[in-house]
């Protein structure tokens, strides 16, 4: 399996009905070994941070086997709007 920013973004949008998914390849030379992800989804409403991260890790379980570093930020639409206003 080839892990790309497009693959990760598409999978997260489909799984979480996300309002926004931003995926950045942060590895040197963009070799798909390290990713930074922002996910804004109503499915995160009422869930603590750890539960949100577990949801994402479960969704990307196969991909994470090939990734060396994965940073994620998971927000509800309301949290995203507040953050943008700051």
Structure annotation, total helices: 4
* Main β-sheet, spatial strand arrangement: 1-2-3
Beta-strand percent range: 15-25%
| Approximate shape | globular
Uncertain segments: none
- In helices, the fraction of residues equals 40-55%
Largest sheet: 3 strands, mixed
Average pLDDT reading: 93
Order of helices and strands: HEEHHEH
| DSSP E strands, number | 3
Protein name: BolA-like protein 2
Organism: Coregonus suidteri
InterPro entries: BOL2, BolA, BolA-like_sf
GO molecular function: 2 iron, 2 sulfur cluster binding
Structure commentary:
The structure is a single chain. The protein is α+β, with helices and mostly antiparallel strands and 86 residues long. Helices cover 42% and strands 23% of the residues. The chain contains four helices and three strands, in the order αββααβα. Strand 1 (20-25) and strand 2 (34-40) form a beta hairpin. The chain is globular and about 35 Å long.
């Amino acid at each position: 399996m080839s892990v790309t920013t497009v693959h990760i973004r598409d999978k997260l949008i489909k799984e979480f009905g996300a309002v926004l998914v931003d995926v950045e390849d942060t590895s040197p030379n963009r070799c798909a070994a390290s990713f930074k992800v922002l996910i804004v989804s109503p499915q995160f409403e009422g869930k603590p941070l750890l539960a949100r991260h577990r949801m994402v890790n479960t969704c990307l379980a196969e991909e994470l086997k090939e990734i060396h570093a994965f940073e994620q930020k998971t927000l509800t639409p309301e949290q995203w709007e507040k953050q943008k206003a700051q």
